[in-house]
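Memo to structure team: turn this sequence into structure tokens by end of day. - J.P.
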Amino acid sequence: MRDSKVDFTVSVYKKSRAFNIPKHVCDSLGIKSGDSVNLIIRAPSGIQLFSGRKTLRSGPEIYGKDIAAALTPGSTITVEASEPMSAQAEAEAESFNVQELNAGFQSNSRIRSAVEEYAMAKAKDELQKQGFGDFKRTAETESYDYRCARDGKIYFVEVKGTQGKGAAEIEGWILGVV
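Reply from structure team:
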């Protein structure tokens, strides 16, 4: 029985943002050109650079716009690769991913937290520009994210973040006035 995943260290090509899955890993996992595998790519420090599914287009090479920003030509990376997914499993996974995105749900808690923290900082900056002050972060204890004041009134603020384009203007930050 073959392994379900294998960890390995490789160098990113010196002139591009791509790498090869070594032959012994391909053999161990039963990977061949055209297969779809789950990858987790980490820097030597352990920081995760990419996590997702990639389809091998040219032998065991891994490349694509979605990982280009994560890879530095000539760098060394650690990769965890899974055995290939069947066409049916891949279609089901893609369907689930589309449903998650359409529902606005991010299953990765680290990404979800980063988006929320970024949104909180941007909202606070914008509110400060509009003259609000005396901020108290209440996200961990209340059903709203900030309590702040302006012109002698207290305001309760709920913040929502998005990974999408955010094309619609943000409205309705202020939920209540005391």
